[in-house]
Amino acid sequence: MRCSPRCGSSSTAIEPRLPIASRPSRTRPRGGRCPRRQESLSSVSDTRPRPPSPMPVRAADGGSSGLKSVDTSALNSIALRETRVKNSPSVAEHLEMYRRMVLVRHLEEGLGVLHREGRTRGPIHRCDGQEAVGVAATAVLEPGDKVTTTHRGHAVYIGKGMAMGPVVAEIMGRATGACGGRAGHMLIADVEAGVIGGNAIVGAGIPAATGMALSMQVLGQRSVALCVFGDGAAQTGICHEAMNIAALWKLPVVFVLEHNGFGLTVPSAVQSSVPDLAVRAAGYAMPSEIVDGNDAVAIYRAVAGMVERARRGDGPGLVECKTYRMEGFSTSDMGGYQRPEDIAAWRARDPLKISREALRASVGDETLSDIESAAKTEVDDAFAAALAAPFPTFRLDEASNPYSEAH
Ligand SMILES: Cc1ncc(C[n+]2csc(CCOP(=O)(O)OP(=O)(O)O)c2C)c(N)n1
Ligand SMILES: [Mg+2]
């Protein structure tokens, strides 16, 4: 089954198969045995060929290969019926997602300019081309829900409702920043907005969101934790540990895998045994879906379905968003390993273009242009305010300063 008109990958959804103990929801099952595990695993090993994915990936041999995926369509019907909810965004919601994506794009481009002028500190991981993932996934959430993200988290910060001013000021290390200038661009958090934080340790946001979901379950809240993480992070051991325990205990956590084709300079094809990482969800009896990661509406729909079932106590789910990072790994990336034709192909499928095109028919060019110019002004103002703001002052504790002359 195709997950969206633009996505050549199949949706993969697997009914959770864990026995539920006496309490029907948010109850930790006593045992971890999965009675139908064998059935799901044998279905996953069916490797019938499928049409290639639109995501261009350089194969291990350096050639170009379409993604060969596992056909798990046999597993889809039950869970898809169950997770089919009223989950399409309204035009107003799509418009707001578009506005936030435009804000993030201006933020990224502004940072690029400042970096070239030598006015930023440390590497900055831009998310140009990936805005739809962080923005659309968080657009689904309610204010009490929490999100963790990665070193490339700008779209999540803005998507979950942080104001542009404190985000820009934090990236620029100013006292007026969301974390007082102490976090920098990779570690921004905002408790009130439900942003538990970016994280410079690859994979570390995955157990953090899972732990947050455990606390929500223990406290009997109706909230959901969402974790945005990369394809590189998906290869870490902690990812598997967290997913296993999340599925075993039916924790209200949704894993959103931002599959941009690379971990640092390493292509997915040489770091993963499977091209579609969503198939791993079957190993945890967890539903999963693959979507076009440049299509905000497709992401919103898939994440909304997973959030809905997590909120009602049916446990975690995984959404794999196929996307591409158009500006390299970071501002210190020297490039040369991304094929120009791949970059061009993905630029042609820019998530902002896809949403703009979809919205034009309903709201018209004028509304979109107004939104675009207001977003530009908002980001320009945020940069001007941040650059005029002071740096924080730090008081060193002499006793714990290893470089102190006092020792
Ligand atoms: C535990 C750990 N190992 C290695 C690194 C170095 N590192 C930083 S980003 C990165 C790649 C991450 O790839 P992915 O998760 O796909 O995120 P992307 O950069 O593609 O958004 C690596 C290996 C790190 N920061 N933390
Ligand atoms: Mg990656």
Automatic annotation (TrEMBL):
Residues 25-35 have a biased composition (Basic residues). It catalyses: N(6)-[(R)-lipoyl]-L-lysyl-[protein] + pyruvate + H(+) = N(6)-[(R)-S(8)-acetyldihydrolipoyl]-L-lysyl-[protein] + CO2. Residues 99-393 form the Dehydrogenase E1 component domain. Gene3D superfamilies: 3.40.50.970. Its cofactor is thiamine diphosphate. The pyruvate dehydrogenase complex catalyzes the overall conversion of pyruvate to acetyl-CoA and CO(2). It contains multiple copies of three enzymatic components: pyruvate dehydrogenase (E1), dihydrolipoamide acetyltransferase (E2) and lipoamide dehydrogenase (E3). This is Thiamine pyrophosphate-dependent dehydrogenase E1 component subunit alpha. GO terms for biological process: pyruvate decarboxylation to acetyl-CoA. It comes from Segnochrobactrum spirostomi.
